[in-house]
Design a protein that fits this description.
InterPro entries: GP_PDE_dom (IPR030395), PLC-like_Pdiesterase_TIM-brl (IPR017946). One of its GO terms (molecular function) is phosphoric diester hydrolase activity. Pfam families: GDPD. By secondary structure, the chain is of the alpha/beta class. The structure holds SN-glycerol-3-phosphate and magnesium ion. The site of magnesium ion has 3 residues, from strand 2.
């Protein structure tokens, strides 16, 4: 059984989603992978947040892309933290044995140049493991490939992809991130968002490549149970 467990936005069952506190807790508790979402501020700084707006997860209102970072950092998550920057997360994990899945949130807003800014920032962090880049926006992944075709790019989709291996070959991608397993022979697939124990057990037994979960500790305990 080799399914990797990714903390989806950190560990949102314990700490605010996409917060440094959650990421810190996760790495202190030996999380194998961390998934997080990236947008650009108006002054083109990559920050970590799921939504395009700060309405749901901070005490502020408005779109990330309408604020410069100096303004944005005044708004607080529910634990009092400012919205984390990508740089802060890279600093936190750079000497840690953890796999990162960076999701470009470019399907609603076109953040001109985000791919180049992000790839450059990550390459300058000299992480222990290559980052897995994903997006619902295939164009973002294509831009990334043109910038650096040696990285690991995965397409996020809710659709069933027919002939997934042919699709990946054609698009020069490494794998699919799906909300249900396709289970095609030889396909690299990681599944989100898996919080239910029975579903975890099934996916572990199918040996999918990874799962994204809001509770990585529960997933680790569930996987351990299957090993005894
Ligand atoms: O990357 C897996 C998952 O995070 C994709 O959906 O909306 O939670 O970012 P979402
Ligand atoms: Mg995500």
């Amino acid at each position: 059984m080799s399914t990797l467990i990714f903390g989806h936005r950190g560990i949102p069952v314990k700490f605010p989603e996409n917060s440094l506190q959650g990421f810190q807790y996760a790495i202190e508790h030996n999380v194998e992978g961390l998934e997080f979402d990236v947008h650009l501020t108006r002054d083109r700084l990559p920050v970590i947040m799921h939504d395009e707006t700060i309405n749901r997860t901070t005490d502020g209102k408005g779109r990330i892309c309408d604020y410069d970072f100096d303004q944005l950092k005044e708004f607080k998550l529910s634990n009092g933290e400012s919205i984390p920057t990508l740089y802060e997360l890279l600093e936190l994990v750079k000497n840690v044995d953890v796999l990162l899945n960076l999701e470009f949130k470019t399907d609603q807003i076109h953040y001109e140049g985000i791919e180049e800014i992000v790839l450059k920032q990550v390459s300058q962090a000299y992480l222990r493991h290559p980052v897995i880049y994903s997006s619902f926006n295939l164009d973002s992944l294509k831009i990334c490939q043109q910038l650096d075709d040696s990285q690991n790019y995965c397409f996020l989709t809710e659709q069933t992809i027919r002939n997934p291996l042919a699709f990946l070959r054609k698009e020069h991608l490494n794998g699919l991130h799906l909300n249900r397993a396709q289970d095609d022979e030889g396909l690299i697939e990681r599944i989100w968002t898996v919080n239910d124990e029975a579903r975890m057990t099934k996916l572990f037994s199918q040996d999918v490549d990874g799962i994204f979960t809001d509770d990585f500790e529960k997933a680790m305990a569930t996987r351990n149970q299957l090993l005894v």
